[in-house]
Request: fold
Amino acid sequence: MTASQPAKETGTSARPKLAFRPLPVPQVDVRGFWGDRVDAVAAKTAGILYDRCVEARMLEQIDPDVPSPGVVIPFHVSDGFTASTVTTQMFWDSDWGKTIETAAYSLYRRRNPDLEKKIDAVIDMYGKLQQEDGYLSSWYQRIQPGLRWTNLRDCHELYCAGHLIEGAVAYYQATGKRKLLDIMSRYADHIADTFGPEPGKRKGYCGHEEIELALVRLARVTGNDKYMKLAKYFIDQRGQQPHYFDEEALARGADPKDFHFKTYEYNQSHKPVREQDKVVGHAVRAMYLYSGMADIATEYGDDSLKVALERLWDDLTTKSLYVTGGLGPSADNEGFTNDYDLPNETAYAETCASVGLVFWASRMLGMGPNRRYADMMERAFYNGSISGLSLDGSLFFYENPLESRGGHHRWKWHRCPCCPPNIGRMVASIGSYFYGLADDALAVHLYGDSSARFEIAGRQVTLVQTSSYPWDGAIAIEIGPEAPVEFTLHLRIPAWCRKAALRVNGKLVDLEAATVDGYAAIRREWRQGDKVELDLEISMARLFANPQVRQDIGRVALARGPLIYCVEETDNGGGLHRIALPREARLEAHKEPNLLGGVVTLSAIGSRAEAEDWGADLYRPEPPATRETKLKAVPYFAWDNRDPGEMLVWLREG
Reply:
C-alpha cells in the first residue's frame, strides 16, 4: 500500500472490561478457503462494483461539477394508483459507501492503483458536495433539495449516512487516508447536533436501521464517545411514544397511516426495543437493528438490551430461520411472515439478510464467547450469504431460494443493488470475524488458514492458524508473543462436531472441564512457539425440520461440518423432485479438487420415480415405478456456478 500505518481501533469510556471486539481487517490475513474468496473480491468484485455504479449513473449524482441527472429510477407505486415518495435512487449514497468499504479491504489485500485513484476521486466529490454545516446527501442536495430530515421513515437519509461512515472507517483503516473519515466525522457531528434528547433537537431515528452500527465503528476508531452516545440514543428512542414517524408525517402534511406497509412492525419501531420479543418486518432492517442493539449492550454492559436480544434470537432461530442461515421468506415485505413459514422455492432469503445475521451474531459475541452465536455466524457465512456471490466474484444473487426449477440465476446488477456491495464488503473483511479481543483474552470464533496480530497486556502477539477447514477439521495454532504474556485463549467447539480433541504443546486438555458456553478456555502464560492442536471431527449429517415446517415434512437436508449441501441438475439430471434418499442409505464424502474451485461432495444411492412409463394420465391408482439412482450433492454456496438447471436442498426421504 501507499498508505501509512493502518489504524487501530481505540477505546471509548463506556466500554466494560470484559467486552470482546473484532480485530480490524489490517490485523488479520486470511488464506485457504476464505483467502480464495477475498482474492476474488479484490481481483474482480471491487472493480465491478465501481464500474456498475458508474453505469447506473450514480457518479453523476454525487459530482457537483456536472449537471444533476434528475430522477433516473422512477418512484415506486405504493398501492397501484398512488405514487410513492420512495425510489431506490435515494439509496445510492449507501451503495457508494459499501463500494468504498469493499474497495478499502480489497486495496489492503492487493495493490490496485487504478481502483484507488477512482475511489479517491469519489471521495473528493463527496468533499466538494458537503455543505458548510456538515450535511451530506446527494439525493437531498442534488435531486430533492430543501427536503432534508422531512421523512426519516421512508427515505433512508440516516441509512445512507451510516454506510458512508462505515466506508470511511474502512478506507482509513486499510489505507491510512483520512479525508473521507474527516468528511463523515463532520457529518456525524451535524447529525449529533440535529438529533438527541436535548431541548430543540429532533427526537427521530431512521426507518432503515444502519446508522447505529456505523456510529459505533466511528466512535471506536476515533475515540470520540459522542458518536457512541448518539448510537445509544437512536436505539433507546426507537418505538417510543409519541411516535416520531407519526409526528413527522403530520409535520409534512401527510396522513401518518398512509404508507405502504401500514404497520411499524415493518421497520421494528412498533415498540421500544427492550419490549420487543418477536422478529418481525423487513429482515435486513431487523438484523441491522439487533446488531446495533448488541453493540450498545456490549459497550455499556446493558443487560436489559441483552435480555431482549436473547428473546429475539430464540424467536428467530427456533421459528423463522432457513437451514442455510437464510431468512425472510416473503418477497412482499422482504421479510418475515408467520412462525414456521419457510417455503423453499419461493424463499426470498435476501443475501443482505444473511449478511445481516452475520453482523448480529458477531456482535453478540462482543458480550463473550458463546457457541450459539458463533455457530450461527458460521452457518450464515458458509451458506446463506456467500451463495450470493459467484465463485469468480462477478455475478450476484439477490434472493437465495432452497429450491429451483432451473430459472433462478445470478445477475449482473439490480435496480436495488444493495446486495452486491454488501456481500463484497463482508467477504473482503472476513478476517475481522475470525477473532475477538478483550483486555486479557482472545477468542477464536472461526477456523481456517490465517494470521492475526494483536496487543494484549502490553505485549505484541502473533497467532498463526493452519488448517484446510472447512474440508478438514485439523487445526494447528502457533502463538508468538514478543515476550511471555498471560491471557486466556478461547476456542470454539462447534455444536455440529461429535468428537473433538485439544492439545497444548502435545499435552491433552480435558475438554469437558475446559469448555464453557461451547468454548474451550485455556489460560496460561504463553511463550514464543507454543502450539495448540485442535482436532474437530467433520462428519456428515442428515438434518430434519421441525414438524411444524409444513414444506419440509418427509424431507431431509444434508450437511457436512458447517456446510449445507444441495443437489443440482448438472450432476443428477432433471426432475430432482422425483429423487428420494432412503434413511438407511450410506453417505460418502469425496474430495474433488478440480470441481468448483476444490470442494468435498457427498454421494449416496437413492431412488428416482420414473415418469417415462406413466403415460398421458394425470392421475392413476398405481404409484410410479422407481429405479435406483446415485445422487451427488455439492455445497449450497457453490450452486449455479456451472450449467444452469434445477437445484434442491430438501430431498424426499424414501
Summary: The longest strand covers residues 599-609. The first helix runs from residue 32 to 55. The chain has 18 helices and 23 strands. The chain has a mean pLDDT of 94.
